[in-house]
Amino acid sequence: MAWLRMMGVDSVEYHRRTVLGRGDDFEGRAVAYYGSRGETPLQWGGQVAARLGLVGAVDDASYEAVFGKGGARDPHLGTRLVETKRPGVELVVAAHKSVAMLGLLGKADDMHALLDTETDATVGYLEEWFARQGGRRGKAQRRAPTGGLIWARTRHAVSRSGDPNPHDHVLVANLTEMLDDRGGWKGLDTGGLRDLVHAATMVGRMAAAAKAVELGYAIKADHGPSGKLDHWAIDGIPTAVTDLFSKRSTEIDEAMEAEGFTSYRARGIAARATRDAKTDDSPESLLLRWYDELDSIGWPARKIKQRLRVVQDEHRRLLRSLGEAERAEIVRGLIGPSGPLAERKAFTQPDVVRLAAPMLYGCATDELDRVVSGVIGHPEAIPLVGQPGARGRAWAAASALATEAAIAAVTERLAGRGGKAAVELGRVRAAIAAKEATLGRALTEGQRRAAEAITTSGRGLDLVVGIAGSGKTTSLEVVRTAFEAEGYRVLGTAISGQAARALHDEAGVESRTIASIVWRMEHGKLRLEERTILLIDEAGMTDDPAMLKLLAAANVAGAKAVVIGDHRQLGSVGPGGGLEALVNRHDSAVHVLDENVRQRDIGERRALEALRAGKVADAVAWYQRNNRLEVVPTRQDAVEAAVDAWHAEVRAGSESVLLAWRRVDVAALNQTARKRRVKDGSVTGSELEAPGGKRYAAGDSVVTLAPSGDNRFVTTST
Q1: By the 8 A CB rule, do 156 and 70 touch?
Q2: Of the chain's two ends, which shows fewer C-beta atoms within 10 Å, N or C?
């Protein structure tokens, strides 16, 4: 994906020095690899540039006017156009490594033509969107047309590791002209730019793919190591060659791995942190070095040329135009019930572009417009009104809306069905008393009310909304005890194996994961009956299709469904929101557990309430005031400090746990903690090497990452 980051004063000065001041040039000489172009100076581009009379090469005065501190000024009058702390956004568009290799094979003009096409299409897509609806007005952020964008663009052909790497830097100024009835100048919707860059990247890649075919090249899909690259490559360029000249990418990957980060934003930070001055090699020595490196891996340039020619002759194809049937099949694949757009609650036109473009590499560029229009205009694409957070119009797949409607319909039937699955109040209170005797304390009022209401309502549907630490499992154990005493079968399910295991271990409920229970019902291995009570835990994390299958099965069988969760906690991976909708529709069936019995400290409880309400700053402020946060200079310092505190508590006899958000941090904490336990003698003896290379010894605690086939262990069992 094209690389994007906000510019600060430092980046303005960097580009002033290295590009405007030609600090990265090779002493005015052009390497043969570049063809006739050399390292290009900054050039103005965009409709707003033309509006301001900025054409051709960027000079120091105009650069300062547009990107200077405080916001852009009119380059001729000097008047301030906008006031902003951020001068603009830097976009970097890089050619695929196979395209970069063309410059070493005597085809530099083709290399430049392909990158020209990719960058033109990428920024062209962004400008077209901004011209159409990129302006914002008022608190409601009403969309308005604008005059487009203004940017300064330059090309570099060598990476900072000295590899062939043609790429364009496009500095997009934080400025646009409003073309609504009020007019004037405003800063960019930079959030919109970030949201669009993925789709713009795909548009650029598709345009470059079409250009490659026009130039006579055969292309192939390149999904990358992750399988999600969604790129294309020149067919016939060996992978060993492209890997050889990916040193800069490897440097950035290694820097990210060392710090434990994987995100797109982290990649940009790592790129800047490892950005040394460009190689001091002369142009001639660079070329010689590249050819020597190719020789060293057994792929001299002449051999690559030969292979490229053979593969191209065999696989070269003409630019394709889709037939109606083929285009319709692609559209159905995107918007149909099993398509990627049906896996989300809503989508926008850029979402369609991002998904469709990689399917159309090698086709004429207008095919993308046809496919996108086909999706947007398809009967399965339902326009939405007032979609929160959407920039522009949004749609939903009909299958996703149908699932929502089906959930609404089946829950209406369940909630309206009375006279079923009820227990005498006296038996329920006996179960409550037995549980209180076991606990040595009384249940909270919320726990008591929920248990009594669920077991005596006689409804086909009851809903339990419980905050974290409110004792939902305790209430469910009472529910299970009361229903089983009357001869009902109580069956539990949850999206995760750990939650299903907790239902079994802590509430005594026969439980399976949702995937398991749905599979068993669909294959005739499990039947719900009229005297079945189905407890659906972690409902906020359950996607709509799974929720529908469970509720529909309960409705058909005449069983009772109890849906438990908290819609303000972690949501579903797929299209979800079913729990919140049920709570809003069936308030009479909702039982709330809002008293936290897990945290003894009242301040802790209030901090968690603030987190649940979305008041993150309030919660963090409390943690900071009460010495719950420790800020250290580096990630490694944080790992060491966390393990030190954990180890001290464990040695003192307390139960303590180390938690982290990302797997790489979990691994670092585990490795550091294990070294500490080996050192203090808690882990001893010879080690056993398990499949995958991990080593264990006596005293290690092992947490499962997947369920066992015999159901003895579920995910995160210890």
Answers
A1: no
A2: C
Beta strand 590-593 pairing with 461-466: parallel
**What stretches of 36-195 adopt beta strand conformation (E)?**
43-45, 88-94, 135-137, 142-144, 151-158, 164-173, 176-177, 185-186
**CA separation for the pair 21, 59 (Å, rounded):** 10
User: Which position has the token pair 């008591």?
Assistant: 448
Q: What is the mean pLDDT of residues 360-370?
A: 97
Give every CB contact of residue 706 below 8 A, 6+ residues apart in sequence: 715
- Residue 301's Cβ-side half-sphere holds a number of Cα atoms within 13 Å equal to 15
Distance CA 108, CA 95 (A): 12
Helix axes 108-133, 190-214, angle to 10 degrees: 140
Checking if the pLDDT of 254 tops 60, the result is no
- Once rounded to an integer, what is the mean pLDDT over residues 250-270? 52
- Percentage of the chain lying above the pLDDT 90 cut: 54
- Three-state secondary structure call for residue 617: helix
DSSP class of 709 = T
The residue-averaged pLDDT of 473-484 equals 93
The answer to whether 626 and 605 are in contact (CB under 8 A) is no
CA gap 712, 504 in Å, rounded? 12
- Residue in 197, 185, 69, 62 with CA at minimum distance from that of residue 127: 197
The pLDDT tens digits for 620-639 are 999 889 988 888 888 889 99
Determine how β-strand 461-466 pairs with β-strand 142-144.
unpaired
- The pTM for the full model equals 0.79
pLDDT at 599 over 70: yes
Rg (CA), the chain: 31
Rounded to an integer, what distance in angstroms lies between the CA atom of residue 302 and that of residue 454? 78
Give SS3 for 475. Answer: helix
| Cα gap 505→424, rounded to integer Å | 26
Q: How many CB atoms lie within 10 A of CB 186?
A: 20
pLDDT tens digits, one per residue of 137-158: 888 788 899 999 999 999 988 8
Distance of CA 577 to the CA centre of its chain: 18
